[in-house]
Amino acid sequence: AHGTSTKLNDKSETRAIKSVFGEQAYDVSVSSTKSSHGHLLGAAGALEALVSIKALMAQYLPPTINYETPDPECDLDYVTNSGRPATIGVFLSNGFGLGGHNATIILGKYTE
């Protein structure tokens, strides 16, 4: 997730995930690493893609740390406070910028 930990952005991203994936959105694990390293502005997307690739290689979901007060409208499978092993075949990473500069990257594990 882009995961800036703001009420508006987190609710908007939750709604977007639900809109794209429908009922299957509840089967998608959601994590953001900004809570670990801060918002790196122009470098955020690159670092989060690298973290996602590492998670794919390790088959381990990194946590969104310091997640203490859940918002009832943000009710997906958030990976909070501690990571967890998972079978990961594909990841999707969102990046949203000021002025409507948005990007999404989807990468998958290579199999022969």
Describe this entry's structure for a reader:
With about 110 residues, this protein is an alpha+beta fold. It has one domain (about 5-110): 3-Layer(aba) Sandwich (Peroxisomal Thiolase, Chain A, domain 1). It contains three helices and six strands, in the order αβααβββββ. The strands form three sheets. The protein has a two-stranded parallel sheet with strand order 1-3. The protein has a two-stranded antiparallel sheet with strand order 2-4. It has a two-stranded antiparallel sheet with strand order 5-6. A hairpin with a 5-residue loop joins strand 5 and strand 6. The protein is globular and about 40 Å long.
Brief account:
With about 110 residues, the protein is α+β, with helices and mostly antiparallel strands.
List the helices and strands and how they pair.
Elements: H1 7-21, E1 29-30, H2 34-37, H3 44-58, E2 60-61, E3 77-78, E4 84-85, E5 90-96, E6 102-108
Parallel strand pairs: 1-3
Antiparallel strand pairs: 2-4, 5-6
